Amino acid sequence: MSQRNWLPHLGAATMRLSASAREPKAPRIIPFSAIRAPLFTKYVVLFVGVVCIALLVNGAAQIWFFFREHKASLIRIQYEQAEAAAAKMGQFITGIESQLGWTVQLPWSATTLAQRRTDAWRLLRQVPAVTELAQLDPSGREQLRVSRFALDVVGSGIDFANDPKFREALAQGRYYSEIYFRNDSEPYMTLALAGDRDAGVSVAEVNLTLIWDVVSQIKVGQRGQRSRRSRNIVSDPTTRRW
Amino acid sequence: MHTTVAALLRRGDLMRRSVFVSLIAGAAVTWAVTIRAQPAMLVIGILNSTSAASVPEQFAPFHRGLGEAGYVTGQNVAIEIRSAENDYARLPALAAELVRHRVAVLVAAGGPVAALAAKAATAEIPIVFTVVTDPVKSGLVASLKKPGVKVTGTSGLTSELDPKRLELLQQIKPGARTIGVLVNPNRPDVARQSRELETAADTLKLNLDFQKAGMPDDIEAAFATFAERRLDGVLVTADPFFNSRRGQLVELAKRHALPAIYQWREFATAGGLMSYGPSIAQAYHQAGVYTGRILRGANAAELPVVQPTRFDLVINIKTAKALSLAVPESLRMMANEVIE
What we know:
Order of helices and strands of chain B: HHEHEHEHEEHEHEHEHHEHEHEHHE
Oligomer: heterodimer
Shape of chain B: elongated
Largest sheet of chain B: 7 strands, mixed
Low-confidence stretches of chain A: 1-23, 220-242
Order of helices and strands of chain A: HHHHEEEHEEEEHEE
Number of helices of chain B: 14
Largest interface: A-B, 28 and 33 residues
Mean pLDDT of chain B: 86
Largest sheet of chain A: 7 strands, antiparallel
Strand order of the largest sheet of chain B: 7-6-8-9-10-11-12
């Protein structure tokens, strides 16, 4: 580049230098000529921003509503399933109760133990879910215990007078125990029923396996939880029988 | 290929992209179907402690259970049977043979002996056992609910019900004093079985006369002893060996005019006086169902051991009449089945 040629450049640079010297705070104030193009960009950014936020908020709201709706319907379905299962459980227990009813119809003094034993065996034959039946005399002593697995016990005289299954059955007519497990896997429940007069109390151990499939089909997480008459029944879907 | 994908994605052509995605998905499904449809005949190994020919009716419900899971023998599943013919010492070798055969599931039929031999032979192949008295006590599973190992099946109250059978026998023959008890000395828990029976006999005020029989000839000798000592009745204890000799036992009881009680319903229908216990047919059916489920991919370690819920008392009135026994009305009432 020759000297002549670069002189005008020098002149331009000097001019620019002098301009910046006159307005030392130019970058902060933003000169009028520099604003035009960024303004358009700003509108675009603002517009896009507003639209995006609106979309995001809308989307989030939709997701939230959908989630709530979905959760509500899931809860509704599970509640209905639970209701149906509870109804079936109720039916099952009521059926057993009515069968148990005729073992406490006659007053204690009117029957012999041999008769009661035959009756107890008839009950076991009629109701496969009952695995054991004990009969307590009006004073709360066990006079008979008939079982599918163990030897029958006649006149053991074990005192159940202070046992809730005797006391509650006398006071309220019937007693339901908590659910308990035998052999770590079989769900059972104790059901006691008192007769009208001095008929004593019949105590049945009920194997819930037969009804368990109904309950265990309902799943809440890993394990289901259902209640019947304020008693919690924990359903475990892995428990099955043949 | 990559450039096409990139171009499609870059252009953001929704239509084209959805076509591309569905093509990929379609390819994946086709691939999965081809994998599934690969013709591979699965093999079920059955390890039997007795002889399969002696108890054919047990395997009919097993096949039915298998069919419910979608498996039909000869069509999509093959069966390899190894029977020890009551010689329990042969079981480990037979189990090893089935393991070498690379069976998909190993079914142990006939009590705890077969199940224990199968478990000792493999930890890889899932095992389904049928009718084991107490699978926890015999060390087969950690718990009934969750076996923990690849072993599951059906537990039955088998020898646990022997004391109850003693009681029922006493009811059909009131005034009985001495009862003969036939036990299999090769049974792993024979000592416990005998102890429990002694305790029950004390309660029932009965005397017991134990006779051991592990082979068919022993049965003959034991019954001769029972007859000679003029016993009031015989309890044939729960054991797969006795089940496999059903015909012989019923015949001997008849010949020596001994009232006897057995484990399974099939004894009473074959002419035995009475039986009390769960249903063996149901147990084998359940074993078939479990085998099918395991073939479909279920984890045996997660399948709970299934327990019986029904216990049936069966009385053969014809046999009672032949023995000139009057069946008490109370016992008749208890019976779930009366064979006239």
